[in-house]
Design goal:
Number of domains: 1
Low-confidence stretches: none
Shape: globular
Radius of gyration: 14 Å
Helix content: 25-40%
CATH superfamily: Nucleoside Triphosphate Pyrophosphohydrolase
Number of helices: 3
Number of strands: 8
Strand content: 35-45%
CATH architecture: Alpha-Beta Complex
Oligomer: single chain
């Protein structure tokens, strides 16, 4: 079965000592994390950094030790025979303004853990944020 790969990250900053997460809303109305397709010759990390900058305008620092994946068939896209695998890292930014890429992002927000969890439509997004939040709390 063919596999399509994307990479992105759970992007965060600290506000008053609490982590706040960058959550984007797609033109289709789904909330999630910045991510995108791997281009020829890119590593997973390079893809994540490029996509985060393209979609949010942020220059981020990847946090060592965190990597998780989500895989699912592309049923909504009408390609159930293709498996999409998305690799997520954890990335931090400081003091930069969020800037949404208009062609791919309808809205961009900085949310608390609780607000982000209540915004997600997909259980996989909740799992990924929960893993990232737990990782941050163990640091």
């Amino acid at each position: 079965m063919p596999v399509e790969k994307s990479c992105g990250a759970v992007v965060f900053t600290y506000v008053d000592g609490e982590p706040k997460f960058v959550i984007i809303r797609s033109p289709e109305g789904f909330y999630g994390f910045p991510k995108g397709h791997v281009e020829d010759g890119e590593t997973e990390e390079q893809t994540a950094l490029r996509e985060i900058f393209e979609e949010t305008g942020l220059r981020v620092r990847l946090i060592d030790g965190f990597r998780t994946e989500d895989s699912h068939p592309l049923i909504r896209e009408g390609r159930p025979d293709v498996i999409k695998t998305i690799v997520y890292f954890l990335a931090e930014f400081d003091g930069q303004a969020l800037r949404a890429q208009e062609s791919e992002v309808s809205e961009i927000s900085l949310m608390s853990y609780e607000k982000a969890m209540s915004s997600f439509q997909f259980e996989s997004s909740k799992r990924i944020l929960s893993e990232a939040f737990d990782f941050l709390n163990r640091r």
